[in-house]
Specification:
Keywords: Cell outer membrane, Membrane, Receptor, Signal, TonB box
Largest sheet: 22 strands, antiparallel, barrel
Number of helices: 13
Family: Belongs to the TonB-dependent receptor family.
Oligomer: single chain
Radius of gyration: 29 Å
Structural class: mainly beta
Number of strands: 35
Protein name: Iron complex outermembrane receptor protein
CATH superfamily of the largest domain: TonB-dependent receptor, beta-barrel domain
CATH topology of the largest domain: Maltoporin, Chain A
Subcellular location: Cell outer membrane
């Protein structure tokens, strides 16, 4: 639907809503109507009585009073889990928040993508203390079978945020670009940091999987000290370690090699490992506020993290094993003399002509007329084949500093500056640059990716007193300046070197090619924005809000986005709420300028190079690439809030989100003699530099996501047996691909049928989280949780596999010791050791994948943990 039509529809919807809300309200003020009693003071439903700051700039609203749906989660909900990763912790308690684990997926194996409402990770805005958090340097590039929903996204790394630093997490399930700017299409996750001004807490946690691998250790330290009378300084430091897991089966070719050469195949004969990576690192946060007077203060918060990861890539087969075709980086084909003698001789002449020794690049042969064959002499170092180890050292920091205060007139102000950076240092071990022959090193540093962001905000809030409404009009306005810079740092020379045999074996570090000086660079874009946000209680029963934001970006044309919100309390216990909004997401410098050469598998299981090129590169332009534009959304929601008692609350919200011009990766398979190869050759791309698959970013996909979120919370009083809190959450979600553009000048859609099928079916339509917390009178608590995952489908390599629904159960028992100064928790996640259905895809089975890589709850099985905490 064109945006002008959407605007008219939005005005009609909000007018109808406002009329329906206003008529009863105005009737009570009419002389002809009997006077109605004022609405009693709002009750405080259990677990929803915290005040929220996300989605509203009115102070003092609770989640049930807010105009948009907001969930609030305490650290206790997050920390009673086996995982030390906030990504997993949120996915287990928020049914509309999903993540997957992708091994053998380059940096995606380390920086976990997460989806809210079945939308890409970078369509959810992440805030820390209400300020925008910087993105990671990773652009998710992996194609199937590594998650279609996440492909192409560049988002925040939740894994850099320790739960010990968190006071609460607010999840706004509503589009809010008009309030916060780019990315807030699916919603907003606002992480509020710990502001405790007194005490020390030390925690230690250890756990493992039922299989005995994947050991996890986490220790954290939190310190709070006062600053002057009302200020505080809070510091959190957390160290974590996590060992790898392995849930694969031996690859078919690896099993043959292992039988012929026992003990030579990597990973104890498996060839490669499907599972979690090794990980260790430090994560730290501080949060501080220093009062200057009764009406002004300085504040600051920031973080520093340094994490190291390593995982495996695909297995490369060796030379000389009957029935197994050797990897092309070691031999051109299974027959050492398969190439014409003239080709062998021409290659030898070229090597000698450069003053090089042929023995460094080819293998001597008594039967070849040239005396040499196209066999890489480095093959002798890998009798069982080789599996590259891919590693990353991730450094992350952020600092936000500002001042805020209040004038006597009631005008509140907040001025802040921020800078954040995420830097990924890649390493590749146990690999080769095949074009360098026996002279190739076996370890590489392919490059450094950096995402640097700066920003400045000036925000004002004023309670405009008036006689027309039942409350002051909360007038919020301000401006923002943002700059994003994406840097590609070149790798070590051997990682991108084009050696003498590049035309036969390929070049660059095998598995993940290094960034050359030509591909390295620094790319920036900036944006400027101004917004106005109005919210008020129009009557005692009706609240309404309107927000508008103008943003001008150097990456695309300027945009104006708006949001209309309304809430009507029909009775003391029943209220209705609705919103209508537009949104946008700007293409990132990383998406515009990414250049990446890695390795993937094709439909036969063979390994092929995959190249992702910038949209303005000759290769991408030759294949029809166009400049990227911003994604645009139109969304509306409607819900009901029911709070019959102080102990029970129920909210049900329906939403519909339409997104035009979604950014996705367009993938081309390049085969000899194909029109795509001809176009690349005509553009001046050397044949040796053309990968087997080429990708670039493109707009051109329109989708609609609709769903229903339900949250029900009840607190029971068991008398002498303590109290219990029942928390039931359910999310129904369905995504439809409405339109797919064609590649200019062709009849080929920018997304193939498998990608479309995955967008629509790869995530479960239904997710439930049922939690019961029992607080006993005997200083211990019991937490039980059930997670339900509906069935899903995965379309990969020409096959569609279906996987059934599952229930996973968690249990934690916590003891308070020594007058509540010590705490012991014993627990488990997936305590009945549930696994997803087995993988049926023939190619993935050949590659050793036993379980679906798209599983929304992974495939590690059950895990147990023990946690000890001490307060001083």
């Amino acid at each position: 639907m064109p945006r002008t039509h959407r605007n008219r529809l939005a005005l009609a919807v909000i007018a109808a809503l406002a009329t329906g809300a206003a008529l009863p309200a105005f009737a009570q003020e009419s002389p002809q109507a009997p006077a109605q009693p004022a609405e009693p003071a709002a009750k405080k439903p259990v677990e929803l009585d915290q005040l929220v700051v996300t989605g509203t700039r009115v102070q003092g609203r609770s989640p049930t009073q807010s105009l948009s749906p907001v969930d609030v989660f305490s650290p206790a909900k997050l920390e009673k889990q086996s995982s030390a990763d906030l990504t997993d912790q949120l996915a287990i308690v928020v049914p509309s928040f999903n993540t997957q684990r992708f091994p053998i997926a380059d940096g995606t194996a380390f920086i976990r993508p997460a989806s809210l409402r079945n939308l890409p990770p970078d369509e959810t805005l992440v805030l820390i203390n209400g300020k925008r958090r910087h993105r990671s340097a990773l652009v998710n590039l992996q194609a199937e079978p590594f998650g279609t929903i996440n492909q192409g996204a560049q988002a925040v790394d939740y894994g850099q945020i320790p739960s010990a630093a968190i006071a609460k997490v607010e999840v706004l399930r509503d589009g809010s670009s008009a309030q916060y700017g780019s990315d807030a299409i699916a919603g907003v996750v606002n992480i509020i940091l710990n502001d405790n001004a007194k005490g020390v807490r030390i925690d230690g946690q250890y756990g493992s999987t039922y299989k005995g691998d994947g050991d996890k250790w986490r220790s954290s330290f939190n310190l709070g000290v006062p600053l002057m009378e009302d200020g505080f300084f809070n510091l959190t430091a957390e160290y974590f370690e996590s060992d790898f897991t392995s849930r694969g089966i031996p690859r078919a070719d690896a099993a043959v090699v292992e039988a012929a050469r026992p003990g030579q195949v990597p990973f104890e004969g498996l060839g490669q490992r499907w599972g979690d990576p090794n990980a260790k690192g430090l994560r730290s946060f501080f949060n501080a506020e220093l009062p200057l007077s009764e009406n002004a203060s300085l504040y600051g918060f920031g973080s520093y993290g340094d994490s190291k990861f390593d995982s495996s890539f695909f297995y490369r087969t060796p030379v000389g094993v009957a029935g197994v075709a050797p990897r092309g980086t070691l031999m051109v084909d299974a027959n050492a003399d398969g190439l014409p003698d003239a080709v062998d001789q021409a290659l030898v002449n070229s090597i000698i002509g450069q003053g090089l020794n042929p023995a460094d690049y080819l293998t001597a042969s008594a039967t070849s007329p040239s005396g040499w064959v196209a066999l890489n002499p480095i093959y002798t170092q890998f009798p069982g084949g080789y599996t590259p180890t891919f590693a990353a050292d991730i450094m992350d920091y952020e600092g936000v500093f500002g001042a805020k205060g209040k004038f006597d007139s009631g005008l509140r102000w907040d001025a802040s500056l921020r800078q954040g950076e995420n830097r990924v240092y890649y390493k590749l071990i146990n690999s080769i640059n095949p074009s360098l022959g026996v002279l190739s090193p076996t370890s590489f540093e392919p490059g450094i990716l950096t995402q640097l962001e700066r920003g400045a905000n000036l925000d004002f809030t004023y309670p405009w007193q008036n006689d027309a409404f039942a409350s002051p009009i909360n007038v919020a306005f301000g401006g923002e300046w943002r700059e994003e810079t994406y840097k590609i740092g070149e790798g070590d020379p051997a990682s991108f070197a084009v050696g003498p045999t590049a035309a036969l074996f390929g070049f660059g570090s095998d598995g993940f090619q290094g960034d050359s000086p030509e591909g390295a660079g620094k790319f920036s874009q900036y944006s400027r924005a101004a917004y106005v946000d109005l919210e008020a209680d129009v009557t005692q029963r009706w609240s309404a809000g309107v927000a508008g934001r103008f943003e001008d970006s150097s990456a695309f044309d300027s945009t104006f986005d708006w949001k209309l919100s309304s809430r009507f309390a029909a009775t003391e216990t029943l209220a209705f709420r609705a919103t209508v909004n537009t949104g946008f997401r700007a293409p990132t410098p990383g998406q515009i300028n990414t250049l990446d050469i890695t390795t993937t598998a094709n439909a036969s299981g063979a390994l092929i190079p995959q190249g992702t090129f910038p949209v303005n590169s000759p290769a991408a332009i030759a294949l029809g690439a166009q400049p990227l534009t911003a994604e645009e959304s139109f969304a509306y929601s409607a819900g009901v809030v029911y709070t019959p008692t102080e102990n029970f609350s129920l909210t049900v919200d329906y939403y519909n989100i339409e997104i035009d011009d979604r950014i996705a990766l367009r993938n081309f398979s390049i085969t000899p003699g194909s029109p795509e190869e001809a176009a690349l050759l005509a553009a001046g791309i050397p044949a040796s530099a053309i990968p087997g698959q080429v990708s670039y970013f493109t707009n051109g996909v329109d989708t609609t996501v609709r769903g229903v979120d339900l949250v029900a919370i009840y607190k029971a009083d068991f008398g002498n047996w303590g109290t219990g809190t029942f928390d039931a959450r359910h999310s129904w979600n369905k995504q439809d691909v409405d339109h797919v553009d064609l590649i200019p000048g062709t009849t080929t859609p920018v997304l193939d049928a498998e990608r479309v099928a995955d967008l629509e079916n790869q995530m479960p339509n239904n997710r439930s989280v049922l939690t019961f917390d029992w607080q006993s009178p005997w200083n211990f608590t019991v937490t039980t949780r059930a997670n339900y995952y509906d069935s899903w489908e995965d379309s990969t390599f020409g096959e569609t596999a279906s996987f059934g629904s599952s229930w996973l159960f968690d249990l934690a028992v916590s003891f308070d010791l020594f007058d509540d100064h010590a705490h012991l928790t014993v627990g488990g996640n997936n305590i009945f050791d549930k696994y997803p259905d087995k993988q049926t895809n023939s190619v993935l089975n050949f590659l050793g994948a036993q379980y679906p890589l798209s599983s929304p709850y992974g495939f590690n099985g059950g895990e147990w943990y023990v946690k000890v905490g001490v307060d001083f």
